[in-house]
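Q: Please design a sequence for this.
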C-alpha cells in the first residue's frame, strides 16, 4: 500500500504536520468546489501541509460530499483528512461510504457526531445518529483488521483496510460535568480505536495545556492536534452567541477583536498574528501538529501563519499571556500555575465542586426499582424472568408491552426502542432526552451545561447523568464500558421481555440466559 504521508508525519515526533481545512460548499460545479481544488493544488507545494481537511455538511446544512472531494484530492497527490460524521447516515450508509473511501485510497478520517441537521431541501432533514463516533471508530478498527460478518456459507472476512482515524475532544467546556464527560468519552474513543485526537475550537492556552496534560497523565499516548481557527469579528460574534456549537469565544476575546477590526487592514494582520502565536504555543507545548481553518482563507495566509509560527516557537511561553480568555467562572481540571499561566500537575478536587443541575428524587426511586427487579438473582428478578418467559410469543405479549411502554413513557419519556439504555445514562433516556441519541457520552456541542439543540432550555442529558452518578460516587461509569448502538430489531417490542430473555445489550452484559 502507498505511504500515508500524513500518518507518517503525525507519528514522527520530529515532524510537526499542518492540516488545512477546506469547505467543499453546496453544489457540484460551483465556484466553491473549484476554489477548494485550486487551494488544494497550491497546498501541494508547502512542505508543512500534510493533509487537507474536508468538512462534512458543516453547520448541519447540505454540501458537496466530503468523501467524494477526498477522492479528488487524493488524485492531486496530497492526503485528504475527511470529516466523517454520524448525523446524516445510518450504519449501513456509513459502511458503504467506508468501502468507497477505501477503494478510492482515502485513508485519513476524523470521526465526529456532527452538527445537528439544521436545513435542507424542503425543510429540516431527519437527524440520523444511528451510530455514535465510538461505534464508528469500532467499525473502522474492525475494517482495519478485516471485517468479519456471518454469511450464507459461514463467516466472511474482508481484506484489511488501512484507515487512519481520529476523533475530537473539547477541553473548552464551562462546567465540571461537561468537561469530565468530554474526558470520559475521550477514553472510550481511544479504546474504540482513535489513532489521533483533534481539539475543538477555543482560545484559552490553559485549556490547551489541560488536555495535553490530561492525556499524558492518563497514558493516552496518541498524537494530539491543536485546532487553530483564523478568527474574524463576524465569526467570533456568532461563536460568542453560541451560533456555531462547540466553538468558544469569550466576551473578552470578542472585545479585543472588535478593537482590532478598526485597524486600517480591518484586523487582518492581528488575525494572522493570533493564529501564528497559537501555532507557536501549540508546537512549543508539545502538540503533535495543528489544524488550520477559517472562512475564505487564502493559501498565502496559511503559509504566513506557519512561517511566523515557526519563528515564534522558541518564545512560546512568553505568548501564553495572549491567550488568557477563560470562560467566566469556568471549570479547569487542574490547578492554575500562576508563574506560567498554565496548569500545575495536580487536578482540582472534584469532590469539592457542587453538581451543576438538580437531581430530584426520581433517581433514587429508579435505582431502588432497578435493584429490586433487574439485578440477577435478587428480589423480583427470578419472578420477572419466569413471567417474561411465559408471556413471550403469546397473545399476552402485546398488552404486556403496552402496559410497560405506558409506564416508561410517563416516567422516562420512553421512545420504545426495545434496547433500553436507561441503566447506561443514570436512568435518563438517550432516545428522548438527547437529540443526537448519544449512548456513550455527550457530543461536543453542549454550551454551559445546556444541550446544543436546546440551549438555555434543556440541560445536556449527560450533565444530568453526571450529577446523578456523582451523588453516589459512580461518575466513573461514564468512562466505563462502551454501550453498543441500539439494535433496531427490537424496536417497538417489550424491553422487559428483551432484557429477561437475553436479547438486549444489557442482558448480554449480565449474561442473561433465556428461561
Ligand atoms: S443532550 Fe448533550 S449529547 Fe445530546 S445533543 Fe444535546 S448536548 Fe449533545
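A: Design:
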Amino acid at each position: 500500500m502507498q505511504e500515508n504521508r500524513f500518518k507518517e508525519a503525525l507519528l514522527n515526533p520530529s515532524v510537526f504536520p499542518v492540516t488545512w481545512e477546506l469547505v467543499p460548499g453546496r453544489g457540484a460545479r460551483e465556484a466553491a468546489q473549484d476554489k477548494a481544488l485550486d487551494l488544494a493544488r497550491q497546498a501541494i507545494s508547502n512542505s508543512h501541509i500534510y493533509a487537507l481537511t474536508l468538512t462534512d455538511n458543516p453547520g448541519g446544512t447540505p454540501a458537496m460530499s466530503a468523501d467524494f472531494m477526498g477522492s479528488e484530492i487524493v488524485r492531486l497527490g496530497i492526503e485528504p483528512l475527511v470529516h466523517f460524521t454520524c448525523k446524516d447516515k445510518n450504519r449501513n450508509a456509513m459502511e458503504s461510504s467506508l468501502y468507497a473511501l477505501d477503494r478510492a485510497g482515502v485513508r485519513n478520517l476524523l470521526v465526529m457526531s456532527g452538527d445537528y441537521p439544521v436545513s435542507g431541501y424542503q425543510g429540516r432533514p431527519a437527524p440520523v445518529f444511528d451510530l455514535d463516533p465510538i461505534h464508528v471508530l469500532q467499525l473502522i478498527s474492525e475494517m482495519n483488521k478485516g471485517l468479519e460478518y456471518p454469511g450464507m456459507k459461514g463467516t466472511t472476512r474482508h481484506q484489511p483496510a488501512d484507515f487512519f482515524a481520529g476523533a475530537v475532544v473539547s477541553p473548552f467546556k464551562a462546567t465540571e460535568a461537561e468537561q469530565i464527560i468530554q474526558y470520559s468519552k475521550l477514553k472510550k474513543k481511544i479504546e474504540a480505536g482513535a489513532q489521533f485526537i483533534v481539539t475543538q475550537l477555543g482560545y484559552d492556552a490553559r485549556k490547551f495545556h489541560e488536555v495535553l496534560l490530561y492525556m499524558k497523565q492518563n497514558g493516552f499516548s496518541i498524537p494530539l492536534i491543536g485546532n487553530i481557527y483564523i478568527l474574524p469579528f463576524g465569526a467570533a460574534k456568532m461563536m460568542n452567541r453560541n451560533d456555531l456549537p462547540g466553538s468558544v469565544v469569550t466576551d473578552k476575546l470578542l472585545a479585543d477583536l472588535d478593537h482590532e477590526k478598526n485597524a486600517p487592514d480591518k484586523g487582518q494582520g492581528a488575525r494572522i498574528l493570533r493564529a501564528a502565536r497559537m501555532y507557536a504555543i501549540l508546537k512549543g507545548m508539545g502538540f503533535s501538529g495543528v489544524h488550520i481553518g477559517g472562512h475564505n482563507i487564502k493559501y498565502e495566509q496559511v503559509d504566513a501563519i506557519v512561517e511566523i509560527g515557526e519563528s515564534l516557537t522558541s518564545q512560546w511561553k512568553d505568548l501564553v499571556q495572549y491567550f488568557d480568555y477563560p470562560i467566566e467562572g469556568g471549570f479547569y481540571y487542574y490547578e492554575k500555575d500562576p508563574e506560567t499561566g498554565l496548569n500545575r500537575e495536580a487536578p482540582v478536587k472534584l469532590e469539592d465542586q457542587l453538581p451543576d443541575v438538580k437531581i430530584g428524587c426520581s433517581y433514587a426511586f429508579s435505582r431502588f426499582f432497578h435493584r429490586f427487579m433487574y439485578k440477577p438473582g435478587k428480589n423480583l428478578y427470578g419472578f420477572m424472568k419466569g413471567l417474561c418467559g411465559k408471556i413471550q410469543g403469546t397473545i399476552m405479549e402485546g398488552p404486556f408491552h403496552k402496559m410497560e411502554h405506558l409506564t416508561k413513557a410517563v416516567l422516562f419519556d420512553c421512545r420504545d426502542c426495545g434496547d433500553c439504555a436507561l441503566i447506561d445514562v443514570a436512568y435518563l433516556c438517550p432516545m428522548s432526552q438527547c437529540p443526537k441519541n448519544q449512548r456513550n457520552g455527550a457530543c461536543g456541542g453542549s454550551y454551559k451545561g445546556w444541550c446544543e439543540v436546546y440551549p438555555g432550555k434543556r440541560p445536556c442529558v449527560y450533565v444530568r447523568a453526571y450529577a446523578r452518578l456523582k451523588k453516589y460516587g459512580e461518575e466513573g461509569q461514564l468512562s466505563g464500558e462502551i454501550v453498543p448502538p441500539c439494535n433496531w430489531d427490537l424496536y417497538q417490542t417489550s424491553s422487559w421481555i428483551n432484557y429477561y430473555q437475553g436479547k438486549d445489550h444489557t442482558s448480554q452484559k449480565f449474561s442473561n440466559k433465556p428461561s
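Q: Thanks. Anything notable?
A: The chain has two domains: 5-337, 362-509. The chain has a mean pLDDT of 95.
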